[in-house]
Amino acid sequence: MKFLALSTSVHRYTNSGIHTGMWLGEFTHFYDVLTEAGHEVTLASVDGGAVPIDPVSLKTPVIQLGGTNKRYEDPEFMDKLEDTPAIADVNLDEYDGIYLIGGHGTLFDFPSEAVSRAVAHFADAGKIVSAVCHGPAGLLDVTLADGTKLLDGRHVTGYSWAEEKLARRTEEVPFSLEEKLRDQAGEYTTAKIPMTKHVVVDGTLITGQNPTSAAGVGEAVLELAV
Q1: Is residue 155 pLDDT above 60, yes or no?
Q2: Environment class of residue 220 by beta-carbon count within 10 Å: exposed (0-12), middle (13-18) or buried (19+)?
Q3: Is this entry keyworded Transferase (predicted)?
Q4: Domain segments of the chain as ranges
Q5: Which of 156, 191, 154, 161 shows the shortest CA–CA distance to 175?
Q6: Which of 3.10.310.30, 3.40.50.300, 3.30.70.2580, 3.40.50.880 would CATH assign to domain 2-224?
Q7: pLDDT for 40 beyond 80
């Protein structure tokens, strides 16, 4: 099966100008789980071109476990991030599911017409829609073909405000993802301890709370990829 992984194209916070971008481990962990099981994963981004990497994602020890550094040091793998197609230019019919990679940059460009249209395409076709950490920002305000909202009555998770405080990014982000998900979804849950694995499966909608949940999202996707 073929899966489309989507990254942010935003590389700096608006307020401070500090670098942000895609959280690399959230791509590598999902990628490894899927490809080791024999599936394809293609990377795209909101605007196309080179994908920005949040430098903090290369320094966090818990994320380095599981191969993030190994992948970062692999030129062939990193070439995948150098020239990605824009989501608006991707033939979505070629893929069996979509995975929204996290990173703070997603809060700025995932709530967009192009991303919403892509997510709705997969949801309307009954295909897998998955997201991790800040990636569920791309699930917000998505309207389906029947006029309902994607998150209506659904069970989800995503990066919590407590985790935002731990990351010291409360002054940088444009909104609280937790608050938005609580407002729009049927139920929003988190792990009892911040920054520990928490994955929620609701039909073909799969969400993970934080970077430590990326491999779990991949494993949940595999359960449906039959």
Answers
A1: yes
A2: buried
A3: yes
A4: 2-224
A5: 161
A6: 3.40.50.880
A7: yes
